[in-house]
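Supplementary Text 2. Reproducibility record for the structural model of the 981-residue chain.

All settings were left at their defaults, and a single model was retained for analysis rather than an ensemble. We include the record here because the model underlies the residue-level annotations in Supplementary Table 4.
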Amino acid sequence: MAGPVRAGPEQRRPGAAGERPAARLAGGRPGARLQLIGTTPRRRRSPSGGRRRRASRHTWRNLPPPPAWTPGPPLPTVEASSTTAARRPEEPIVWRLSVVPSTESALDPVDVVVESAPHGRVADLAATLGEHLAGAGSRVLLAPVSDGRPWPAQQRLADSPLRDGGLLHVASVPSDWLTRPTRQRRPRALLRVVAGPEAGRTHELHGDVVTLGRGDVDVRLADPLVSRTHARLILGATPAVVDLGSAHGTRLGDREVVGAQPLAWGERLRLGSTEIVLEPAEGTRTPDAEQGVLRPPRFGSSVEATELDVPSPPASPRKSPFPWPMMLMPVMIGGGMLAMSRSPMSLIFMIGFPLMMAMTNLVQRRQARKEFEAERDLWREDVRGVLTGVDEAAQTQRTNALEDEPDLEAVVVRARTRDHRLWARQQEDDDFLTVRSGLGPRPALVTAKAPTGGDRGLRSEVGRALATRTELADLPVPLELTAGLTAVTGPAETVDAWVRAAVVRLAVTHSPTDLAVTAVLGPGRASLESWLRWLPHVSSAGPAPVAVGAAAGQALLESLTLAAGGAQHTLCLVDEGAGLTRRHVEAVAQAAGERQLHLLWLGARREEVPAATARVVDLATSSLEHARRGGTDAITELEALDLATAWSTARSLAGYRDEAAVGAAEALLPPAVRLPELTGCGSDDVEQVLERWSTSRGLRAQLGAGTDGAVTIDLREDGPHGLVAGTTGAGKSELLQSLIASLAVNNPPSRITFLLVDYKGGAAFRECAQLPHTVGYITDLTPALVQRALVSLHAELTTREHLLERYGAKDLVDLERSHPEAAPPSMLICVDEFAALLAEVPDFVDGMVSIAQRGRSLGMHMLLATQRPAGVVTPRSRPTPTCASRSGWPRPTTPPTSSTRPTPRSSRAATPAAPGCGAPATAPASSSRSPTSGRARSAARRPHPSRCVRSTRAAGPRPSRPRPTTPASTPAPTSNASSTR
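Retained model, structure tokens:
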């Protein structure tokens, strides 16, 4: 990891010995190295010694370059700040850009992050870019240019055409450019390049007619398929385009442009391999609104898995045998009659009866056949209806599948045109974290069950028809990444192309609010970072979302394991070549499920994936295999995306913002919280404290500030006892001080008193010990003092029990209602570093636990603070806390195997990992910041709890009620540094 470095004149130029160009930025020269960049501001002193303006110091994260690169100095990060005014407190504006100097400047293209105050000017950016690209101390001005003309020097950057993820062309300008009068012409329209070699570039169009081409024209397009004079745009109320006899033609959508064709705003116009869109100039003044992405619901009809019943075909008519015996009987009888009577009537009997019977049989057979054919026709109509339903469902299934997972060309178009389907997938959707792995046969959701009865031939007929409808060809094969570990294996180039396609798909379908992308890469795949960095999903994953090598990768996975578990899911690409042990990856994968962390293993062989792998996409065999013999899905067409398209698509997404995004808990919390502001009492506002005492109800205290205002707890409603958990530096002691000071401001000493136990030298409660509410302050415990303190506390319990019995009250609240003059104040026993106290003085802890178990109805409350609840809050020492808080989560306070958790997992997930931030268990869905925490607190100012303590001390003297009596003659401990008072 490289330290802070300044860019100097010794910066490597492309073409140096042993150096091969890795990429070519449009309009620039090869050799640009792409890096993630961060900046740390510093002050530059003027020659007179005074502070004059802010400059910037650069911190690089130097990733190992891919094989085509040679190591060089890190890339610059710039901070544009005004040279004439101090930095305003407004939130700075940040752009991630690729700076492409002109060829005459002999400077390298670089990727930078530009951070500017809202009042920053183009002149500030030009001076800063000149210093960082040309070398320290250089007076070169690198001004942004559009169509060869520099931007006005005094134009505000917030009003300029800067776009996050865009290409910024700069050129050296003379110093008199700074004093030139601003003659900015309002453009008639904007021309955005959405596809092609210059994707991401924006041109301002002036005048009524603009010529496009590759030669000496108004707008030059660096595309070899564009003619030197390709087309002409006519900018009127309705724009129009005219092809100028170009070699490859001009297409408007699917139509070839012949003559003058009207062009709608936002309609895609194709010239060669470049696609452009026209936008009205009014959109240039509101860049923030322009880049907002709305996420409407996904409408349309869904297809549920259903099996339809096909009616059984009619049974074929049974062929009855011809009635030969019945026909022969009249012949025999007639023959006998003819022999006996010689009458010709016998011949009629012999011929008529058999003929009549034959005709009857033939008619019956024909009628049966007609009835069968009629029933068959009706049955076939019913079958056709069923098959039509199956076909319609199959078509809907295909349409939905291709709508949700279209081909890569459509995915890229959605990203570049900010389509309404961009980031449409929500966490509640069934296909969340599902990506298309390729095309292949997929089972039909709606099928039909073949009949079992009826004519065999008809059953075979419908069976053949149904067999062709059980599977749909060339549908997206979904890969679910919801498991802890998924793998993709195959040749390195094939895996890289597939990963580019998968990550781009996920970035287009999922909002960065819902999905963050990180990567652990080996040296051979470090070039993946060159396009991953532009994705907003990667920038939302943290300050160092891409790690190269085993050591950095292990640190990244550990940080992801600790930080994951919030509302945002995280996908981490793990390269086999990074050198991580499979045991470590498997351990992370096993814990990843409940933390919403998902790993995608990039390997070479299917047989060498980690054992915890749930699914494997084997690119060598074109198959998706499910672990534990879950079956294999064939893939007939694999996904693949080239590096240039992935790079340009990621840049298109860089400037988008989710309009419906809810910020992280830490971002929604105020940077600092002051207890006087929460309580409404200043340092000398004694009257206000007295007024709050006179109107106090319950035992309420302001715990901190949450996302929707002050967070308030009540010891009686949310208690009676509590537990505060957090590591060293997380803000436990600050939280305890704030809680005690808030209770003192809101309640008089006649309503609550404090017994403070600090076993780490008395630093935690030194100021709170001066409160009039404090009746005991214990900083050191000897065996004798342990016994004396316990005797005093038991005597207090006995006194309260006698009071309740005397006045017939069931608890202290009932006694306050019936006899307020006789009711003793509630007592809060507050213990810091409970673990150390439990280890060294277990008798005292056991005694206090016994008191807490009996003191619920007597107004005795206990608040424990510890770093590690597991193993400390045992079943014996747990005082049944119903109010819990934690500070600075998710630091490793409790091992995964422990069952002792101070707060629910749901609230843990929403809590930022920052000192002073926590979540009370009584408000699971919220986070809060401790009143005394903040990013910057002046050491010269009095701490906020101290100011409340001072006003509370001035409001009233110490309580004059008698000390707790003891049942024995042992006196109560006297007041000193290690006793109660």
